[in-house]
Amino acid sequence: MSLTVSLRTAASGLQAAQAGLRTTSDNIANVNTPGYVRKTIDQKPLVVGGMGMGVEVSGVKRITDQYLQMATLTATSDSKHWGTVSEYLDNAQSLFGDPSSNNFFFSRMDSIYSAFSAASDDPSSSLLRSQAISNVSDFLNEGARINTHINDLGNTVDAQAKADIDRANDLLEQINRLNSDVSRANLANADASGSENIQSQLIDELAAIMNVQVQQRSQGGVTIRSAEGYLLAGDNAAKLSYNRTDSTMSYIAIEPIGGIGQAQPITITGGDLRGLMDLRDQVLPGLSDQLGEFVSRVTEQLNAAHNANAAMPPPASMTGRDVGTDLDTAAAGFTGTSTIAIVDRANGVVQSSVVIDFDNQTMTPGGAFSGDFLADLNNALGGMATASFSDGQLSLAAGAGYGVAMDEGTSMKAGRAFSHFFGLNDIVRSNGVTNYETGLKLTDGHGFTPGDVIQLNLAQADGRPLRNISITMPPAGTMQDLLDTLNASSTGVGLYGTFSLDSSGKMTFAGNGGGDVRLAVAKDDTKRGTDGASLSQLFGLGGNERSSRAGRFSVDQALVSNPMKLALGKLDLSVTPPAASLRPGDGRGALALAGSGDIATAFSAAGELGAVTMTVSRYAAEFGGSIGRRAQAADTRKQSADSVATEATARRQSVEGVNLDEELVRLTTYQQAFNASARMVQAAKELFDVLTNMI
Length: 695
Description:
The protein is α+β, with helices and mostly antiparallel strands. The strands form nine sheets. It has a five-stranded antiparallel beta sheet with strand order 13-12-11-10-16, with helices on one face.
């Protein structure tokens, strides 16, 4: 009986040694196989009836370290996140050109000022005027081109995010299927390491797309969960969706099984998806917004100077921009004085003038304001010229042989003088609202059609939706009534944030308690007046509205067609007729245009820069620097994440990878164990032979 036990013990040793040799050989064969994790046999004593009966191989297991695996997955997610942001920011930065080149975007602004400076020396030169207009047009066209390409980058980001979601869904399906293979192999005490290695590689790929939590299942395989713990793969594979519209933030959600129920938004903090979503929702729109803010302020200062200038001969008529409000509201709130002069086009002699005194609410000639600004202005013009207001635009037209010239004086509203506010003599025109400082006060009528609806989308910082709100415009009332409606707790945004109106008439939204709540305009059917701007257009609400500004500008076509209409002189009201108030050789206006880049300007918060007051030339330097700094910061964070990922991968590899020296030692050990067991079998055989012969 003892010989039988010895023989069985030796046989079990042979089998264990064979299993060890097999796993060691497999390790050595896969020493250069990417993603391969070394394996070893799991041995334990075989005990029968309390007595040792050899050795039992309970299975083959992979040598892994769950902590190092999670560290590697996290580092990979971070590295991919910042790598994606860095890559697209580099592309965006290249759109502005080489800073050392003459084609650098911000250098084009300097070319504008240089051209106007040259024109001031010879105002009668059509060539110099044309060059100045061409430089302005080039600057605006380049701004529009850059903005278009930034939007194209956004479309590319969207397409990549959709592709990532499709791949993530495919990976989750495969990981979930492999769980069954691993579980079946474990139940049969078979080698499941092949399926587990494939599964591990799929998880590594998934981590590069999105951050996940990985847990080992007791029956074999893994459970994949989102950051907040929602099941993505394990017993079933979740189906993810990429949710976005052109105007709202993007987020990832788990779709309900069978289409029944609501999709569950999940938190994405790392991976390629997080980088793409940050780019799509914040980085690229912020860059477009900052570009729009910069271009709009450059044009604002050019228009301010041009409105304060006068051409010789003066234009027979002037038509302003759409101010988005009725005339009486637009004309209210000014301070100081402004003068409209009717000038002989042939000689530049003032024939009549109207002095508008906003402080004392009078027109000279004419008298006190009656409450109808258009009627008061036409009465003061006395037939020498007529004023009209249509589609939000103020127009002045002089009689035959006469022209219109402006002296802005000391007039001011929301940082703009009278003619500049109405855009009567703009050098740059826009096809939409570009300045959101409306000048409206809380006591002004809101002017929006009662019953019109704006749909707002409120989301968390990472894009996960909070609430969709439809707000109906209140009955005719003041801007305060409109704010009360927008900020109502039950029907407005009051639970999440507050709308406010500052002294310049700019409306802004801020989350409650400093909360990071993002506002988007899903749909806006509101209208101010009959054909006026919508609420989001007038006040620049929502990322879509603000990020498209840079593409709305163009030089006044009348100036392009005839550069001699460019206003390069100044109206001189200090002279007495018949002395001319306008002279062909006057270049003072050109100097004002050349110096417009050195005038302190209030910039709204946009992109990386907060609200600041500085010259447009200084802002150009800050803007250009902020793009570079942001790209460099993303690259630095990528390099840091890469370093962590490299270190985590190296340590994980030191545990999971195949070491030839160690495997050769194991190979020798198993060979010796095999030989020893074989010798034991031989010894048992010889003893059996002896016993047989004795019998």
